[in-house]
Amino acid sequence: MAGPISLPLYEKLPQKNTVQRVLDVTIFVLLLTLLAYRILSLKSNGFSWFFALLCESWFTFVWVVILSSKWNPVVYRTYPERLLFWIDELPPVDMFVTTADPTLEPPIITVNTVLSLLAFDYPANKLACYVSDDGCSPLTFYALLEASKFAKLWVPFCKKYGIHTRAPFRYFYDEEESPHDNSTEFIREYTKMKDEYEVLRRKIEDATEKSIPCDLSSEEFVAFSDIERRNHPSIIKVILENKEGLVDGLPHLIYVSREKCPKYPHHYKAGALNVLTRVSGAMTNAPFILNVDCDMYANNSQIVFHAMCLLLGCKKGQDFAFAQSPQIFYDGLKDDPLGNQLVATQKYIGEGISGLQGPYYSGTGCFHRRKVLYGLWPDGCMETGGRSPNCVAGKLTDEGLRQSFGHSREFSKTVERILSGLSGKADCPYDLSSSAEAANQVADCGYECGTSWGTKIGWIYGSTSEDVLTGLKIHARGWRSAECKPDPPAFLGCAPSGGPASLTQQKRWVTGLLEILFSKNNPFIATLTAKLQFRQCLAYMYILSWGLRWIPELCYIALPAYCIIANSHFLPKVEEPAFLILAALFAIYNLHSLLEYCRIGLSIRTWWNNQRMGRIITMTAWFFGFLNVILKLLGLFEAVFEVTQKNQSSASGDDNHKDAGRFTFNESPIFVPATTLVLVHLVAMVKALLNLTHGRHESRIGEVICNVWVLLCFLPFLKGLFKKGKYGIPSSTICKSAALAAVFVHLCERVSIA
Prior knowledge:
Strand order of the largest sheet: 5-6-4-3-7-11-9-14
Distance between the termini: 79 Å
Helix content: 40-55%
Largest sheet: 8 strands, mixed
Number of strands: 15
Radius of gyration: 28 Å
Structural class: alpha/beta
Shape: globular
Number of helices: 24
């Protein structure tokens, strides 16, 4: 910005949380008291007591991590109206949309996301939208081509009437989005626009049903003829180009399908984003980048201004590397029955780590500084370090640029402009056609060989959770980040609506997080050797340890059943004073978490659904995520990026997902551990009732209460034992679980006899 800004663009507002802190500390003190009691009474108790001590030690560590992460909550208030005085000096922004499979991610979803981005309230000559199609699908390209025609009507309509929701499927079919203008002119244009969108939707849906969506012999589609999805040259096509640089025109729209070859790894989403970074650098080279998933449409047309307030309003030396918007979902199922909306977690953990170095990078809805992705440190040095022979005073030489960023001279020039603080390309307005050769060169599958892409610059490879790893590496260089939470929310996406899809997503997350934890990118190493703050390290441990939590939780959940079957105990008797420690801990923890949910307007049922799904996810998705990583470390398995099925229930105006929210099953082994636990606890319950019937009181009341609590948490599995179809657990899963449960019960009985 050329002139000084007299008023701040944002405010950092610490949040009061006195009651929350008191309850957090009370729980921590009770945990320490419990551990002390366990240790002091260890000699007079047996095996189960020792196991309980180990599990509770882990729970105490996790609580310390949570306590540290939540202790200093902060929110940022932005003032986008203050940027309007510098509208001509605002920086350009390149927007990335990634899609990988037209079957799992229907093109109509991608189209709506792209249309919402093209309609941003930001100078159109400063925006460029790049769509990465990793499926190399002519259907996706066809959908974007048709959408570009509709965009010429849709974008002016949105800006003329100040439409708030700029994804057509939400605007036309959401009951809450009724026409806000009763004038004859508006109603006429509204009706015309809705009809035009219906035509677009039908065209895309008709093309989806065909084996070949369009005539591949035509000039526009000839590049898609005779290609294989995993073995094809790069395809880059400019669909829309704002050649005149009109402020009120349409942004650039570029389709990118990177080259793929079996002998080169493509690194999934991280690889696709790195290709987009290079292609956009060669073509428009905006100093800021927005990346969104194909299902995450822009819900706030002013979001670019909000993000720029954070990224341009920093004091010198305290720049934010990226501004992350929380993931929020549209058509969220009432009471969050699958526990995947993460509202409370994003509220309390998200605001808490905003008071440290800043929020994690969550892979979508994030605005980046391009120079940070290029490996720049806050002090202006490059990731390669000042002692490198290719660096002079911490800056890369021409040879160093080529070694780090690749051999394209044209692209190296654009990198140099970004690293030197210059915005965009030298020739504005952009002539995208003149950059086509360089763009295709940097999209080659072998371009990254021998460079720093994926290791020190761009999105980092080595984990299927490339987003968290990339954010961790950025924080480790000493950068900070900010959470961007405007009202209305910046972006809205769709959450998985069934049990298998939700668990598959969780398994992929945990696999990637454990890959980070068991690598040289471990946050503790970054704290010792780089500039990651210790409390930010603990904040990363909160999510990186998800995949380890199944071990202590499985042991702790199995203890009540073990003690009932083996006539042992891991809890003090009800009449003993020590029982009050556990009772108080159980009551205060659950009351505390319930108050957190109620404080942000969530229902008691939502709280309970999240509690039970927390246990289910740990025993299923997180368990198998851990196994995946162990097998990978042993060289027996290679983690893959599993694309989650995307649905768009509002696209046709009715609810096509009658099963949404109901827990469904399939024959995946992911359901075996939880089913086994339910069967074991049912056996323990029968044993406890028999003991009570025969007047034997070996089964203590504490263990029985825990047994009932576990069955309540796994109620969907308990019901699934007696249901049919997809709502019932498959017989093959029940047989496997029954065999494992029988082995566990037999071992417990042998311990009891011994």
